[in-house]
Design goal:
This protein has 345 residues and is an alpha/beta fold. It has one domain: Rossmann fold, CATH 3.40.50. 44% of the residues lie in helices and 16% in strands. It has 13 helices and 13 strands. It has a seven-stranded parallel β-sheet, with helices on both faces. Strand 1, helix 2 and strand 2 form a beta-alpha-beta unit. Bound molecules: nicotinamide-adenine-dinucleotide. The site of nicotinamide-adenine-dinucleotide has 31 residues, from helix 2, strand 2, helix 7, strand 5 and strand 7.
């Protein structure tokens, strides 16, 4: 699928706007587009993103591809910023938001501004500038307390946090903008995305355990597992997410647009399995490393025991096939942390 996308991009040169390009997923989307010879404007306000991520993209793509990129440091909650950014743009990939359930409970207004106000500003500006399509990051938090496994797009539950409401509201706005103004939109509910450039944060979901546990194991510390470790999640390598996101931006089938999709690995792993897989990947990096057994603490009673995405709709309409398995993605990620982040053992 990667090569098919690359081939279809070779035939068409577009001007893309990538929001949240200094963040984890946004920086990978930017890298893929520049490697495919596309012209990109990108924006970030560095609320959670970093200049180091942009530098890392520059290093990965080389100076001639980097010259196709214009970076703007700005905040999308300002409508004028969005109008200026959308001028002359064909396609938008929107990754900017504040993705923190905990921050949203502390300060729902700030998260609403960064996630929903910013998105509506972008939709209005995209319509005014005749942008063809906007592909936006949505979230598995839309499933709320719905415990169905696997989760299918039409069966959402009761939302759990203000952040989940802000993300879900974006899906409603996108749907209405596509019907009222003819703007093409595609929403992608990402599940637990992991990979290089992801940093561990206390206020985000289980995928963020991967950088934390990698570091803890590397330093000989015991990783903390909340619960018995048999809770499971659908972890998805960022390379799959980039493929699915670009497929959504480029798909020609009219039935595939103005839709929301699950974008995930489509398989689940327990936290105990995740721990073992990271340990194996680290063992391949450093044969002499001794990995401490995990320590088990109380589970969060609000957490769902299992999550798993049904990715059938994305397979059918976007041609999405995850190219990287969980263990392949973990091997690439762990290798990156060892090379770029961790002190030599
Ligand atoms: N990582 C995951 O597992 C996951 C899961 C579900 C959904 N998502 C969604 O995917 C998107 C990308 O996630 P990520 O993990 O890369 O997050 P991230 O925090 O690494 O990236 C978000 C980027 O957006 C920027 N940003 C935030 N508000 C902004 C604003 N108002 N103006 C300009 N820039 C702004 C941040 O500085 C950051 O660089 C987010 O919308 C997130 O909600 C991610």
């Amino acid at each position: 699928m990667q090569s098919l996308l690359q081939a279809s991009m070779a035939d068409r040169r577009e001007h893309w706007l990538v929001t949240g390009s200094a963040g984890f997923i946004g920086s990978h989307v930017l890298e893929a587009l520049l490697k495919a010879g596309q012209r990109v404007t990108s924006v970030d306000n560095f609320v959670t993103g970093s200049r180091a991520n942009l530098e890392s993209v520059r290093e990965a793509v080389g100076e001639s591809a980097w010259a196709l990129h214009r970076f703007v440091e700005a905040d999308l909650s300002d409508p004028e910023v969005c109008h200026a950014l959308c001028q002359g743009v064909d396609l938008v990939v929107h990754q900017a938001s504040v993705d923190s359930p905990i921050a949203s409970i502390r300060d729902p207004l700030a998260v609403h501004r960064a996630t929903s106000t910013a998105f509506v500003n972008l939709l209005v500006a995209a319509c005014a500038a005749n942008v063809k399509r906007i592909v936006y990051a949505a979230s598995s938090s839309a499933y709320g307390d719905a415990a169905a496994v696997p989760a299918t797009e039409d069966h959402t539950g009761r939302l759990q946090t203000p952040a989940a409401v802000s993300q879900f509201v974006n899906e409603l706005y996108a749907d209405v903008f596509s019907r009222c103004y003819g703007l093409e939109t595609v929403g992608l509910r990402y599940f637990e995305v992991f990979g290089p450039r992801q940093v561990s944060r206390d206020d985000a979901g289980p995928a963020r355990l991967i950088p934390r546990w990698t570091q803890d194991m590397w330093q000989g510390k015991r990783c903390v597992i909340h619960g018995d470790g048999d809770a499971s999640r659908d972890f998805c390598y960022v390379g799959n997410v980039v493929q699915g996101t670009l497929a959504a931006a480029l798909v020609d089938n009219p039935e595939a647009v103005n839709q929301v999709y699950n974008l995930a690995g489509g398989e689940r792993a327990t936290l105990n399995q995740l721990h073992a897989l990271i340990a194996q990947a680290l063992g391949r990096e450093h044969a002499g490393l001794r990995i401490a057994t995990p320590v088990y603490r109380e589970a969060d009673p609000e957490e769902l025991r299992h999550t798993l995405a049904d990715i059938g709709k994305a397979r059918r309409l976007l041609g999405y096939t995850p190219a990287y398995s969980l263990s392949e993605g973990l091997a690439l990620s762990v290798s990156w942390y060892v090379e770029r982040v961790l002190e030599p053992a």
